[in-house]
Amino acid sequence: xxxxxxxxxxxxxxxxxxxxxxxxxxxxxxxxxxxxxxxxxxxxxxxxxxxxxxxxxxxxxxxxxxxxxxxxxxxxxxxxxxxxxxxxxxxxxxxxxxxxxxxxxxxxxxxxxxxxxxxxxxxxxxxxxxxxxxxxxxxxxxxxxxxxxxxxxxxxxxxxxxxxxxxxxxxxxxxxxxxxxxxxxxxxxxxxxxxxxxxxxxxxxxxxxxxxxxxxxxxxxxxxxxxxxxxxxxxxxxxxxxxxxxxxxxxxxxxxxxxxxxx
Length: 263
Hints:
Layout: H1 20-26, H2 32-39, E1 49-53, H3 59-64, E2 70-75, H4 78-90, E3 96-99, E4 112-118, H5 126-136, E5 137-150, H6 156-168, E6 192-207, H7 208-216, H8 227-244, E7 248-262
Parallel strand pairs: 1-2, 1-4, 2-3, 4-5
Antiparallel strand pairs: 5-7, 6-7
């Protein structure tokens, strides 16, 4: 399903469904500390009902499943949800997944203790969803916005790979990330208030193949390039990695969390 947003990639269409197989294989890369920081705050644990918006292939529910919460994941892409179901079933996990946009959720009032949105919050129509999220969330519940990105100005491999993406997709707005708190649209504060936020560095291990797959599965590459552009990018990126990257390496990222509560 093509998605277009005037503030993302200058309105260029992208489709996460085109990346689903690579996404399932290569984007489950969050380090343990990413999940530990959620659990340390008492979220997504046993006895809680959690809704994961924009769940993709279900990385968050699957990696946090053993903490005991009951998870529901939703995503607009049918292909992403198919992969999420496959991976959770293969792992013997009882997770509910629905193909539905965040703007069309119909869960009852006071259903969830926690609502999470990882790598996806900026894609939503916040004017439409915020009243719905506040309705579905229990009065003492929390909305967790989560994010992780490589740091291209501080990591040479990340920087070189990113420049190659921009060569093929110069309107890609996911580039040139720097360490900062997650941006929260003003309209969110009509129904929620910021309780806390945290940003921290993480080193994420890769091989040449897994880094290539991770980059291919990003919005600026697999989700939006034409077949020819993608084939040319793949060839050039593999050659680049042969020249600049060892067989195994780590890439500097930063991770961020914003915890919001109802007013």
